[in-house]
Amino acid sequence: xTINDLITIAASGYPDxxxxxxxxxxxxxxxxxxxxxxxxxxxELHSSYRPRALTTTQLKAANARLTxxxxxxxxxxxxxxxxxxxxxxxETKGKV
Length: 96
Description:
This protein is mostly helical and 96 residues long. It is 62% helix and 4% strand. Strand 1 (23-24) and strand 2 form a beta hairpin. The longest helix is centred in the last third of the chain and has 38 residues, at 55-92.
């Protein structure tokens, strides 16, 4: 599996194919676009890519990396939700 193949597969699941715009297939390099999330995903896929690995290994590695990112983003979102709940509770008591 080439890096272009991996990016193409990932791009098929991203809204409006914007992820594909973050990758130059001909020069095989990342591009900076107006979609920082797409740019970030491409950077992560690119950094975890191993040219000599089997296709299943590539897909497993990409999936594992994105799963790790999702877990971390979920933790950040949870912390923000907790803080929001704390502020909402304080607001109802007139403490903010």
